[in-house]
Design brief:
The chain contains eleven helices and twelve strands. By secondary structure, it is α/β, with parallel strands linked by helices. It has two domains: 118 residues, Aspartate Aminotransferase, domain 1; 248 residues, Type I PLP-dependent aspartate aminotransferase-like (Major domain) (Aspartate Aminotransferase, domain 2). The strands form three sheets. Strands 1-7-6-5-4-2-3 form a seven-stranded mixed sheet, sandwiched between helices. A three-stranded antiparallel sheet has the order 10-11-12, with helices on one face. Bound molecules: pyridoxal-5'-phosphate. Pyridoxal-5'-phosphate binds next to helix 4.
Length: 409
């Protein structure tokens, strides 16, 4: 077992050790994976790091001590509410990530509804974070198979509801396929039944507004849709901020009271928290604020253009191999592709891609491959396609062991 060194080491030694530790990781900076990371360029990386460092020690729990953080957080929430077309009176909470935003939304829905045996109804494509939140919160989950084009089957979701259903969920878009659910129909259903509708825009919240400005016709998904109660949107995904930055936005600020903890039942005075964290990194707020100011609308549109350009070139190149059906039903950063020939083994292709330094994204069916692009991918399209062609040839020749889908997505 590793033990604490008896004496301290110099930074230069530690830096070398950390660099060495990373040596076998996949190269995100070279775009060698399409999952787990977001990267624009070195200039933005500098902005993220400098802003984070400027508030490295400040604790965002202590806004009494650091009123500047309260202001930065309010700015980030307001800029985001306005991007997502919230009406006056809306509100939001800065959280550590998509998971926490979703947890808080489900907690608030549960507290508002006050049911003894609550359940939520969601499309099968919704992120598994809802199941994690429900597990923590004592909520039953009803996942409903999706309909044509992988979108939520709203009538089937209605059929799955009962008097104890406290919330409906729609994705904008869902992670497996990049599809935005019919939020308009879900909003109407939620309004009719008087329950919470949460839109999970963790992945799309900071991309969809700019795709719309570029002229893409997206399925309506934000606060313009009647019946939307809350939206989760991750600034640390396409918002391009440092990790540890997401938002839970609510149509009515008063709803935040349902995920507010307050107690004075100890010796040290009242404690109030809107998040599950106590101590919160000031750096995450400062970096989000800085990135949003550094990019502005124009910068986000440039990033979105790079993603869509990479996606178009990759899809065309993958289709041109003749080996795959490319599933591309939505104008978003995600797409999947599946071998046309059932005898062509995706596991062998994945193993060959892996051997060339790429971290393959796999679908649970063992057949499909998954891509979630970010701007840096526009620099690696040709490499990817060349290596994919070689990998398909190797797979056909049966040169490699077939890789299992893997325990972790
Ligand atoms: C649609 C969607 N929702 C929620 C999450 C969870 O976000 P996080 O990993 O930041 O907790 C993700 C993560 O990929 C996601 O894609």
């Amino acid at each position: 077992m590793k033990t604490l060194p008896a004496t301290g080491q110099a930074w230069t030694e530690i830096e070398t050790a950390l660099e060495a530790a990373k040596a076998r990781d996949y190269s995100w900076k070279q775009g060698r994976m399409a999952v787990f990371f977001y990267y624009l360029d070195e200039e933005l990386e500098r902005v993220q790091k400098q802003a984070y460092l400027a508030y490295f020690t400040e604790n965002n729990l202590g806004q009494r001590a650091f009123p500047s953080l309260a202001k930065l957080e309010r700015d980030v929430v307001e800029m985001s509410l306005s991007l997502m077309h919230a009406a006056p009176g809306a509100g939001g909470t800065f959280t550590s990530g998509g998971s926490e935003s979703i947890f808080l939304a489900m907690l608030a829905a549960r507290e508002r509804a006050g049911r003894a045996r609550p359940n939520i109804v969601l499309p099968a494509t919704a992120h598994l974070t809802f199941d994690r939140a429900a597990w923590y919160l004592g909520i039953a989950v009803r996942r409903v198979p999706v309909g044509a084009g992988f979108a939520a089957a709203v009538p089937a979701m209605e059929a799955a509801m009962d008097a104890d259903t406290i919330a409906l969920v729609g994705s904008a878009p869902c992670y497996p396929y990049g599809i935005i659910d019919d939020i308009t129909a879900l909003g109407a259903l939620a309004a009719r039944r008087g329950i919470w509708l949460h839109v999970d825009a963790c992945v799309g919240g900071f991309l969809s507004p700019f795709l719309e400005r570029m002229g893409h016709a997206l399925t309506p998904w934000d606060f313009r849709v009647p019946g939307v109660t809350s939206i989760s949107a991750d600034i640390h995904k396409h918002g391009m901020a440092a990790k540890g930055a997401s938002l839970l936005l609510v149509a009515d600020d008063a709803l935040r009271a349902h995920h507010r903890f307050e107690s004075a039942a100890w010796a040290r005075g009242p404690y109030v928290a809107y998040t599950s964290q106590g101590t919160r990194p000031g750096g995450a707020v400062a970096a989000a604020w800085a990135v949003m100011h550094h990019l502005g609308e124009a910068g986000y549109i440039r990033a979105a253009r790079r993603i869509m350009d990479a996606k178009a070139r990759l899809m065309a190149g993958i289709a041109a191999t003749g080996a795959f059906d490319v599933q591309t039903p939505a104008p978003h950063a995600i797409f999947t592709f599946t071998p046309k020939d059932p005898a062509l083994d995706t596991g062998r292709i994945a193993a060959a891609m892996d051997a060339r330094g790429w971290l393959p994204g796999r679908m649970a069916d063992g057949r499909g491959m998954h891509m979630h692009l970010n701007p840096i991918h526009d620099t690696v399209v040709e490499d990817y396609l060349r290596h994919l062609g070689e990998s398909v040839a190797e797979a056909r020749e049966g040169l490699r062991e077939s890789a299992a889908v893997g325990r972790v997505y």
